Amino acid sequence: MNNSFIRGLRGLMAAGMLLSVHVCMVAEAQERPLDVDTVVAECSLPADVAKALEGRLGDPVLPAMCDPSVATHSTMIGVGAANVLDTYLSPYNYTGPEVRVIRETERMTKLCRGRVSNQILIDVNASYLENRSKTAHEWAGGIRYSMGWHYHFLPVGRLALRGGLLASGYLGGVYNTRNGNNPAQAKADVMVDLSAIALYRLPVAHSEVVLRYQLNIPFLGVAFSPNYGQSYYEIFSLGNYDRNVVFAFPGNMPSMRHLFTADVPIRHGKTILRVGYSGQFNQASFNHLRYHSYSHNFMFGFVKRFKRL
């Protein structure tokens, strides 16, 4: 009888404690982002309950409870295949292997009461390509730097959605080993991208795997392109400008970049393994010249979280 009473009392105390935690979270989320220390201090939680909540308070899926002083960094290396067409150099498609490195930094901000995160993406790729008859080769690659902000909508169960804008810039090129007069083509653009992210917390055994899908669509900006039949000697040596800086929008630059990842905790959650897929479909039609670069890469890397002092 005494044991049953004690167990029942402990159950009521636990239920009351969880209810008080929920009330504290809701009230605090209306004013500013939560962190573990705030909840522990204002809700008077014991150490074991605070430790259990720590993972959820630092989880990017719950944006109203994120700590803006914590930055999440990830680095992924990928291998895959690319398909490139640049009619300035050749009327034929070139295909071959590609390597890609994606570096991401993400942290919460104090904008909109802590519901906006800042994201920085650095995407570097290089590929070695050949034509269908295997008589000519191309080198292609470049670097894209993107920075922007996402608004975190209220999560629905295990699903969380984000939407925002990215400012991105790309610098790269394509080199054809067969051409003599015009062997290379420079690629450059500065764009405003529409961006959307969906996250889902998938329970696996005694842990959770965070699935994330991000879609970036170039929306408005400017890009560099020589005109049809115009050489780089005319542009840079003679200074003959011929609409070489063009306005870019989905009508003449219908492109999209997909990134799907799964964050898998290993070593009892001390290390987060990130695996995923990067699919990039870049297209452009400027000055009667057509270009596309399609790539598929399997990505592999790790995630680290750091607290700013």
Descriptive tags:
309 residues, Lipocalin, 10-stranded antiparallel β-barrel, alpha+beta, globular
Enumerate how many helices there are, as a single number.
4
The CATH topology name of the largest domain reads Lipocalin
Any idea what the CATH superfamily of the largest domain is called?
OPCA outer membrane adhesin/invasin
CATH hierarchy: architecture of the largest domain? Beta Barrel
Q: What is the structural class?
A: alpha+beta
Question: Which range best describes the helical content: under 10%, 10-25%, 25-40%, 40-55%, 55-70% or over 70%?
Answer: 10-25%
Widest sheet, order of strands:
1-2-3-4-5-6-7-9-10-11
- Separation of the first and last Cα atoms: 52 Å
Shape: globular
Which H/E pattern describes the elements? HHHEEEEEEEHEEEE
| Largest sheet geometry | 10 strands, antiparallel, barrel
Name the average pLDDT: 82
Radius of gyration: 25 Å
Strand content: over 45%
- The first-level CATH class name of the largest domain: Mainly Beta
Parts with pLDDT < 50 across at least 5 consecutive residues? 4-53, 55-65
* Total count of domains: 2
The count of strands amounts to 11
